[in-house]
Amino acid sequence: MAQDPAKADALICEMPRIDNADIVAVCAAYGDDHHRLLDILRTLQNRYRWISPQMLSVVAAQTGQTRVAVEGVASFYSFLSLTPKGRITIRLCDDIIDRFAGLKAVAAAFEAALGIAMGETSDDGAFSLEYTPCIGLCDQAPAAMINDVVMTNLTADRAHEIVAALRSGQSPQDLISPRFSALTPYEQASRMVESNIRHAGSVLLGPVPDNAGLAAALDMTPEGIIEAVEASGLRGCGGAGFSAGKKWRLAGATPAGRRYIICDADEGEPGTFKDRVLLTERPHLLVEGMTIAAKAVGASEGIIYLRGEYAYLEGLLAAVLEERRIEGLLGRAVMGQEGFDFDIRIQMGAGAYVCGAESALISSCEGRPGEPMTRPPFPVEKGYFGCPTVVNNVETLCHAARILDRGAQWFFDMGQAGSHGTKLFSVSGDCLNPGVYELPYGMTVHALLEMAGGEDAAAVLVGGPSGTMIGRDSFERRLSFDDLATGGAVVIFGRERNILEIVDYYMSFFVDESCGYCTPCRVGNVFLQQAIAKFRKGLAGPEDIDYLKDLSATIMETSRCGLGMTSPRPILTTLENFPLVYSALVKPSEDRLRPTFDIQSAIDDARKLARRRSYIYDRDFGQ
Question: Would the pLDDT of 553 be above 90?
Fold first, then answer.
């Protein structure tokens, strides 16, 4: 929503006075390093509630960048703002699951209580209210971020209570506990968000010994570690399914003076939240897996890229890293092994779905806009700072630690051919028991639905919007790499849901989240969404189905990153598995002319101006 210039000027007067010396000090805290530009801008955003023109100039001078380059970063990420925000920013999750769970009533309650509309900031600069895409809390929707504090299972009544408490002088943290600062980082995180572990398997969510995998790895050669991971059959758990051992081997074999391990904790796929649970319940196991990977490929530095929506977990992860440094499990001579030095820093994201692509994530870590790079070369050859870089997600690295503990054969024997071990499934939507399930690969969709209390499902989205939407006739299909592959998301939709409403939402998500680099992705997804709107209005003809297929193929073939390569899948998989939904809305006329003129849209403005309904062309009265 565009901000009124006069109101924006008034808000600037309400902002904290910008101190150039403070901006210089923030830059100095990050070594005036332009590669830490995202950290610098996040710090300034949190302190001053916006990135002002003055800040852009000072930061550019301190980091040796042009002002345009700094502004390019500031304008790329949705959690950074070039206009003033309130002291408290309330971001309501606008995922389709939140909508079905009552988001509209919650949003209306916040608007009424605050006296502002979505996208606005109060005149006194106290509050901003806006929507944000999926924040990884579909199992406890509707949800919101209040600054960096997370609130779940919201209702309209609760929204009024929250605003009243904030207006009375309570902080967002006070909403969680009056003694919030006295809680441990784990207690703070778990008070905000339930882990909702519905089924704990034998690998990740059951009992896990401390550092057993790392101890075993330190007695092995790098080649031996890689061979064990390869023999286990471990594949990347983020969706692509590339062999983890092969990725490590390629990075280790590439000649270089430095190598890096990056944990992708930026699970932004709508409906996915299993890494959130591992970050909360198994942070030591994650760091153990990263340390094992470092030993295998010869890396001395690692990064945990934590999505901005998970900022509430930053303190927990920082505490874990510090604890492990004190215990000799990170830093110089890990576990006393001379020559093996490895440490990790946390890189916070700032609201950009495209940073889930590994090359975009690396760009973000380097202080640039999170735009995907053309491949090849791949990150294992030329990644962070141009060095060989292993990028694995949270679940993959946790699995690696358990494999080194229990052995490759133990892991290989679980699951099925081509899909070994266990998988964490994030289950949400129209079911009785949303949450995380750790199950062996090969489970049928029907069996998972029975466990989750979703037997009455009419449709299931496997793998999030970039995955596959299936109907009841496909519920015996198996959750595996060779059948229904998924990074973890399983979203259940009941009989009352409108398939095209769901498709329309996911297409709007891809339109908003495209980085804009590729014309087919930037423009093509808009055209796809417009075509879906025609179907929903009953204006589509038979040729529009071919149009959807042809345009989708063009976008997937010509985009350079995973977003564009998968964004048409909500349309393509529903066309394949729910053809009657589309054909029922195709209405060719008797003279074979398609009605491209929408009389309802044409008279809508006149109807509003006249403040009366049309009794000739109003749907409620007939023609």
Answer: yes
pLDDT at position 324 over 90? yes
Distances 200 to 136, 265, 366 between C-alpha atoms, Å: 19, 21, 37
Q: Closest Cα partner for 358 from 561, 564, 75, 565? A: 561
Architecture of the CATH domain 88-182: 3-Layer(aba) Sandwich (3.40)
Is the confidence at residue 373, as pLDDT, over 90? no
- Tell me: the pLDDT tens digits for 40-62? 999 999 999 999 999 999 999 99
CATH class of 499-583: mainly alpha
CATH architecture of 213-412: 3-Layer(aba) Sandwich (3.40)
Mean pLDDT value across residues 25-32: 98
Say whether domain 415-493 belongs to CATH 3.10.20.600: yes
pLDDT tens-digit readout, 223-235? 999 999 999 999 9
* Non-local CB neighbours of 300 within 8 Å, separated by 6+ positions: 258, 259, 294, 341, 342, 343
Q: Give the integer Cα–Cα distance in Å for 39 and 45.
A: 10
- Which ranges in the chain are annotated with CATH 3.40.30.10? 88-182
Residue intervals of the chain classified under CATH 1.20.1440.230 are 499-583
CATH level 2 (architecture), domain 5-76: Orthogonal Bundle (1.10)
Give tens-digit pLDDT for 461-496: 999 999 999 999 999 999 999 999 999 999 999 999
How many Cβ atoms sit within 10 Å of the Cβ of residue 239?
23
Provide the sign of the torsion angle of the four alpha carbons 522, 528, 532, 537, taken in this order.
positive
**Strand, coil or helix: 305:** strand
**DSSP sequence for 479-543:** -STTSS--SSEEEEE-TTS-HHHHHHHHHHHHHHH--S-SHHHHHHHHHHHHHHHHHHHT---HH
Give the containing element (helix H, strand E) for 391. Answer: strand 389-393
What stretch(es) of the chain map to CATH 3.10.20.600? 415-493
In which residue ranges of the chain is CATH 3.40.50.11540 found? 213-412
- Alpha-carbon distance of 233 to 411, in angstroms, equals 8
Which residue has 């565009």 as its token pair? 2
Torsion angles phi and psi, residue 428, rounded to 5: -150, 175
Beta bridge partners of 469: 461
Please state the rounded mean pLDDT for residues 357-380.
93
Percent of the chain that is helix, strand, coil (3-state, to 5): 50, 15, 40
pTM as predicted: 0.91
For the segment 347-357, what is each residue's pLDDT rounded down to a tens digit?
A: 999 999 999 88
